[in-house]
Amino acid sequence: MAASEVKLEDSWKHTLEAEFSEPYMTELRRFLVAEKEAGKRIFPKGSEYFRALDLTPLDEVKVVILGQDPYHGYGQAHGLCFSVQPGVRIPPSLVNIYKEIESDLGIPPAKHGFLEHWARQGVLLLNSVLTVEEARAAAHQGKGWERFTDAVIRAVNEECEGVVFMLWGSYAQKKAAFVDPNRHLVLKAPHPSPLSAHNGFFGSGHFSKANSYLIEQGREPVDWQLPDQA
């Protein structure tokens, strides 16, 4: 997977160029091509693999939220973690994220799950693995995406100042363990999944803490209120 083949926002393309020439990316591309040739349905569509990066240039990153895998149901995933396409039922973890935003900031829950409004303000909604096979959760783990997204997080850590990392659950916390807390605000809580949200995600206040920190840094806070229409 050469950088010249990939359509990617310029700041990220420049920063991540070396990754695309690494053998693991060549192997990852071969794997994805073979899966499609075998008739398997892959989500999200190819033009949206790097959607999180395209919507949030490196020099505009204010907040990083880490997910694990894209949703594996038809029509859900579109390249942003926790987000679903317009018209798709809001997933349980996102329902809980909305509940915490309402508790923390008094913003009523959105009626849709389309989070591009956040991404366009500098919220990097990054999954660790960027593709999945339909109806097979975690099917593309261990194929190379994790190394690529480690490079994304490393770039934010090293090239940006004063970014808020919202690390929900042990997976995200382990993945971003190298982030420098002296340069960035690292917020940790349990995952918003219904299985764990009551163990400390609810009441964590991450959204107000993030905005307070951004204001202290002289940056615009994030408008967490989503538009009525996706």
Care to describe what's here?
The chain is α/β, with parallel strands linked by helices and 230 residues long. The protein has a single domain (7-217), classed as Uracil-DNA Glycosylase, subunit E, CATH 3.40.470.10. The chain is 35% helix and 10% strand. Strands 3-2-5-6 form a 4-stranded parallel beta sheet. A two-stranded antiparallel sheet has the order 1-4. Helix 1 packs across helix 6. The longest helix is centred in the first third of the chain and has 15 residues, at 23-37. The mean pLDDT is 96. The active site is at 69 (proton acceptor). Keywords: Cytoplasm, DNA damage, DNA repair, Glycosidase, Hydrolase. It catalyses: Hydrolyzes single-stranded DNA or mismatched double-stranded DNA and polynucleotides, releasing free uracil. One of its GO terms (biological process) is base-excision repair, AP site formation via deaminated base removal. Excises uracil residues from the DNA which can arise as a result of misincorporation of dUMP residues by DNA polymerase or due to deamination of cytosine.
How do the strands and helices of this protein lay out in sequence?
Elements (H helix, E strand, L loop, with lengths): L9 H11 L2 H15 L4 E2 L7 H5 L7 E5 L24 H14 L10 H4 L3 E5 L4 E2 L11 H15 L4 E5 L1 H6 L9 E5 L16 H11 L14
Parallel strand pairs: 2-3, 2-5, 5-6
Antiparallel strand pairs: 1-4
Helix pairs in contact: 1-6
